[in-house]
Every structure is written in C-alpha cells, then in structure tokens.
Amino acid sequence: MSSTFRMPGKKGLVLAAAAGLGLPLAVAAPALSHGYTTSPPSRSSLCNTGQVQNCGAVQWDPQSIEGPKGFPQAGPADGKICAAGDSRWAPLDDPRGGQWPAARLNSGQSFTFTWKLTAAHATTSFRYFITRNGWNPAQPLTRAALEPQPFLTQNYDGRQPPSNASHPGRLPAKQGRHLILAVWDIADTGNAFYLCSDVTFG
C-alpha cells in the first residue's frame, strides 16, 4: 500500500431450479463492498449510533453510501455528494443549518482516519478532500466548496483493505468548521463510496 500524503437460501434454490429447467436468468451482480468512516465519524456513522436523529434508512445501513466513481470530474451531482447521489440517503445531504455534530481536530496535526468495512473489495484508493476557507456549512456540499485536490490519498493498486482500515496522514492547516469528504474508489466496479464528516479545527 502506498500513500501520497452456506447454505443456499430460497433465492439460490429458485435460481438453481430455473437453471435446471434451462430458463433464461437475469441476475444483477451484488454490491460486494461496503463501509464507512468511524474517525472522524461520518454523518452515516452518527446516524447509525443514534447521535443524530431523523436520518431515514441510513440509520440501519450506514455502510451503503455508494454511487458512481470518477470524482470530482464525475460522480454524484453537486448538492447530493454526501448521499452519493442516492435518494435513499438524502438526509445526509441536508446541512441541518450547519449544526451536524463536529469532531474536534487540531490544524496540521498527524491524524489516522479509520473505516469499518463490512465487506471489503479490490480497491483503487481512499482519498480525502476538505472544504475551502469561507465555505458555507449551511449549504449542501458542492465541488466548488471543496479544495480541488485531496489532502491525503492511500493507494491500494487493486488490493483488498482490511475490515478495519486505517490511513495515517497530516491534516491541512485550517481553522473553524469544515467538512471532510472521504472517497473510497473500488477497483473492479464502476462505483465509489462517499462519506462526509463534519469537523472543527481548534
């Protein structure tokens, strides 16, 4: 890793029976990778632990914030980045007046980002972006609100990360309230995971 900074269920039995009868099958490939940031805690993590209420379905599914990869040139539309462009997770895009609980960090300090991966997968990289000075925390996240380059990248070159992935690095020099966007790029699908974490630099 390099760094720049059982038994078949009913569905399986039905498919097997259909195959035995020579019937055509159309089976969607399952999403095999899921995960979310735990330090600093992502919005989906805060919903899962009950620290934030009225989150909708993400409360029970914090690891599934998945959308098209290619960020920032492609990927979720502006204003829908924290939900990865998926309407099921729309409460994550709501800035709540800039009042999401924010983890306290120190400007420029060494810091280790951690993830809980419920299903790991071949990985291209994990990238970490941060908002620009003067961004508006009361507005949904847009590309224009972010610094154009990630301040930390962990390259995996197609390898699979551990279930408790950690990425040490150095935080940028910032003051006040900011948002960190973590992007987990999957190597062998067209998707990535998008996790927004609210932070405050002392």
TrEMBL record:
Residue stretches of biased makeup (Polar residues): 152-166
Gene3D superfamilies: chitin-binding protein cbp21 (2.70.50.50)
Pfam families: LPMO_10 (PF03067)
Molecular function, one GO term: monooxygenase activity
Residue ranges annotated for the Chitin-binding type-4 domain, each copy included: 34-199
Disordered: annotated segments: 152-171
Keywords: Monooxygenase, Oxidoreductase, Signal
Signal peptide: 1-28
Domain of life: Bacteria
Protein name: Lytic polysaccharide monooxygenase
Species of origin: Actinomadura vinacea
Phylogenetic classification of the source organism: Bacteria, Bacillati, Actinomycetota, Actinomycetes, Streptosporangiales
